[in-house]
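tool=predict chain=A
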Amino acid sequence: MEQPTIGQLEREISNRIRSLYNAQLGQRIGKIICHFFDKQLAITIEDSVTLAEQTLLNSGKEHLAEQVRCDLDQIIKPQIKNTIEEVINKPIVELISHTSLASGRTAMIVVLEQPPVVRNPHAIPKAN
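tool=predict ok
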């Protein structure tokens, strides 16, 4: 089987994360940006805050909304890590994520041991 391009991997990861949020959290997320940089992967997700979290925020229960988000992140983060590892067929060293309840965005930085094997490795920006 032919190696995928870096763009194909980025799209596959985005699609799988979208499906995971929908299946696990019932959340239809907005735009996802997924981009490799050497041995890192940056992901941003718009509209990642669930209706329950939004309801808590709108009711003045910010602390409870933050706790719910923390718990949801603990549940979904290992699933996202496994999903990315499946797609790129490489281990992940670390996955760092944060969700802003104010903006509704989630940002992730994924650190890899090595870049993924792709048909067009020259298309992956290298670190200085």
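The longest strand covers residues 92-100. The longest helix spans residues 62-88.
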